[in-house]
Amino acid sequence: MKIGFIGLGIMGRRMAAHLLTAGHEVSVPDRPSLTSEQRTSFKVLPDATAVARETEIVILMLPDTPDVEQVLFGANGVADGLREGQLVIDMSSISPTETRKFAETINQKGCDYLDAPVSGGEVGAKQASLTIMVGGPTAAFERALPLFQAMGKNITLIGETNGAGQTCKVANQIVVGLTIEAVAEALVFASKAGADPAKVRQALMGGLATSRILELHGDRMIQRTFDPGFRIKLHQKDLNLALQSARELGVALPNTASVQQLFSACVANGHGNLDHSGLVTALEAMASHQVDQAP
Amino acid sequence: MKIGFIGLGIMGRRMAAHLLTAGHEVSVPDRPSLTSEQRTSFKVLPDATAVARETEIVILMLPDTPDVEQVLFGANGVADGLREGQLVIDMSSISPTETRKFAETINQKGCDYLDAPVSGGEVGAKQASLTIMVGGPTAAFERALPLFQAMGKNITLIGETNGAGQTCKVANQIVVGLTIEAVAEALVFASKAGADPAKVRQALMGGLATSRILELHGDRMIQRTFDPGFRIKLHQKDLNLALQSARELGVALPNTASVQQLFSACVANGHGNLDHSGLVTALEAMASHQVDQAP
Description:
The structure is a homodimer. By secondary structure, chain A is of the alpha/beta class. The first copy, chain A, has helices spanning 10-21, 36-41, 48-53, 65-73, 96-107, 121-126, 138-151, 164-192, 197-204, 212-223, 232-249, 254-268, 280-284; strands spanning 2-6, 25-29, 43-45, 57-60, 87-90, 112-115, 118-119, 130-135, 152-159. Chain A has two domains: 2-160, NAD(P)-binding Rossmann-like Domain (Rossmann fold); 167-287, N-(1-d-carboxylethyl)-l-norvaline Dehydrogenase, domain 2. Chain A contains 13 helices and nine strands. In chain A, helix 5 (96-107) links the parallel strand 5 and strand 6 (112-115). The longest helix of chain A has 29 residues, at 164-192. At the A-B interface, strand 8, strand 9, helix 8, helix 9 and helix 10 of A face strand 8, strand 9, helix 8, helix 9 and helix 10 of B.
């Protein structure tokens, strides 16, 4: 199939490579940053309009809401090259409410739109084991499914309304951020009370407190290994998105607000590029020692 | 072995029964609430002093810190009956700092003290699969280990200082409470944004957001099955304990404080006897519909 792929960042370059492996012709817009290997593997076209014009399905994997808006509707953007019957898939993690507006404008051109953000990070992108959360019409989902299956494993159509995928991704980032904070409060408390946080983590692993976060991020907090992983400043962005959407929807998210503030404190202290498990440093700054030290 | 067991509540009656099954002679203080079956199975003695006098190891399984203080040091209490070389094991979930004081007083009588709170609930107590978190001297831990093994599975000596077991239990209740709240915020947000919370939970189960809480309590929030389980008012008590200890230790626990307030809101609304997954109702009261309804 002829696929356009826009956004060859850390995630996107891995995902696009899987589409090549699956036998698709993948077109990308020209950029100075393209490697010579990428210039050989991909079909390089002058801009996003040309990519849309020469492909059936256009996939976006971009950093934030304004980037998606620019690539879709800006000068030399995707929208200018679309024909009726094409499909646009945005796999970026962006605003659910803006997504709905983008989809409407694309639909007016007779094209389908899917929002299909992912989780699983660089490792998931590399191993083609991403979780993919999709919003949009069932027919469009089925059309895209072989592509999703080339890039991910746990693929769910959350709802037929555009934005449902982005909503699910926001929910994911809420749970992940708040669970990291929960583990951090528990380990700082235990450590400050004189208990060995490694033994506490071990004892908690058997029971109701068990989570992937306690296992992975709890260990990082104890070992003091804060190499990303997923950077604090990106998670801060995601929780800003959650709070902005929540405000629009009229729903209170007290602990999302609190964790967003703690991430802000980390950024203020120069820790924005640490892994999000580094959130524990903000709580430690409210106590008097680290979780790996005796009290 | 001759064991004293004080506190035949929902948990204690199951735990004491496992000690009988393991072949121990189990003495209990007389109470009007003892069933005729219990009067046959256990050796009934007039009071806690008599129980301490006629046994080697005395186990306590009581609701709260003042109950333990009363049974240990009140009139006709355990302390009055202790001889040098005996062991007192408190399996209740109580204050880590008060625990240290109780242990010191017991130690002055030439007796060892272990704090050994449990998690796993009534099911864990019934199936002898409790998680047991222990603080106290290694020798005392080894002496008690066969008894712990009759009642639980994941048994950890957290530290040789008394209170370490209680500290670990508090850490457990922090993680469990805050993870429930995280899942509740995510599902309320998703539902309010128009997504199906059941599909969101399913999509999140594969990835980094996975936890025992998302699996069990997330499902209860969606199914609206709030039969305990573990009651909100008990979890509220545990987080009060966490905040009180944190204050004494000089450590800030912002989200523990927030969740404790949400549990208080539930109690104020007459929901104190719901399962702790019912915390979601406090967040729903800050939005305009339940997680199982379309927006």
